[in-house]
Amino acid sequence: MPDYTFESVRVSVSDHVAEVLMRATGKAPRMGPAFWNEFSQVFREIDRDDSVRVVLLRGEGQHFSTGLDLMAMGAEVAPLVGQPSFVTERTRLIELIERMQGAITAVAQCKKPVIAAIHGHCIGGGVDLITACDVRLCSADAVFSVREVRLAMVADVGTLARLPAIVGQGVAREWALTGDDFDASRALRSGLVNDRFDTPDALFEHARAMAARIAKNPPLTVQGVKQVLNDRSEREARESLRYVALYNAAFLPSEDLREALASFLEKRSPKFEGR
């Protein structure tokens, strides 16, 4: 597979390692329409390329990912949450959720192990993404948040399906219910990341070194290890993802969600009424 560039990512391949760089919009990568349309295709291409044995995933700019790009996705999402009683809109909403889930699940289903190198902010959809990776490393400046609850959303593209198996039910519930930010030290103590490094440069150096070590191992055996480890966890994740897609298709359209979106655009604190 030659090096290539999509609108949302750039991929370079060297010594059996594919480095996937999520391209920044401003200071950070954001998950807009291009990301959701392209990301599963990127990982399908990587999966088909026998020269690739390991994937290293990182963000361009100052952050790993600030998650869903609400401004860019607004035109696609707004009509689906504005008419909650219409069957057509609910059907289109579940299709959108499943397409977005597929972009993240493509990482988990990739036969090649995926290492996430996380620096700066890893928010919302960024957490969904790293939970689908095999190994997570971060720099000391990393800040994480399962932010969806603060936007009147149930996280539906991977975090709730995969995070509890990584950090345990108690920690996962705390993060998902509060939407609080937590730092690299908490991420390390909780097992979300395997290791923490002082600077982004040190992080990328160690992540590349780990990828190189894995790439030297017999590739079919490495893929077999991932397949066996994924067998139970991904079966359970599929069930959870299907459930949350159905749940959000029914309950995501709400006055609280519209208030969350309005307050975001108006740069004010939301006032939720439970409707």
Compose a concise summary of this entry.
The protein has 275 residues and is of the alpha/beta class.
Account of the 3D structure:
The chain is an alpha/beta fold and 275 residues long. It has one domain: 2-enoyl-CoA Hydratase, Chain A, domain 1, CATH 3.90.226. Helices cover 53% and strands 15% of the residues. The chain contains ten helices and ten strands. The chain has helices at 33-48, 70-82, 87-109, 125-131, 159-167, 169-178, 184-190, 200-215, 219-251, 255-266; strands spanning 4-5, 9-14, 17-22, 54-59, 114-118, 121-123, 135-139, 143-145, 181-183, 195-197. Strands 1-2-3-4-5-7-10 form a seven-stranded mixed beta sheet, sandwiched between helices. Strand 2 and strand 3 (17-22) form a beta hairpin. Helix 4 packs across helix 5. It is globular. The mean pLDDT is 92.
What is the secondary structure topology, with strand pairs?
Layout lengths: L3 E2 L3 E6 L2 E6 L10 H16 L5 E6 L10 H13 L4 H23 L4 E5 L2 E3 L1 H7 L3 E5 L3 E3 L13 H9 L1 H10 L2 E3 H7 L4 E3 L2 H16 L3 H33 L3 H12 L9
Parallel strand pairs: 3-4, 4-5, 5-7, 6-8, 7-10
Antiparallel strand pairs: 1-2, 2-3, 8-9
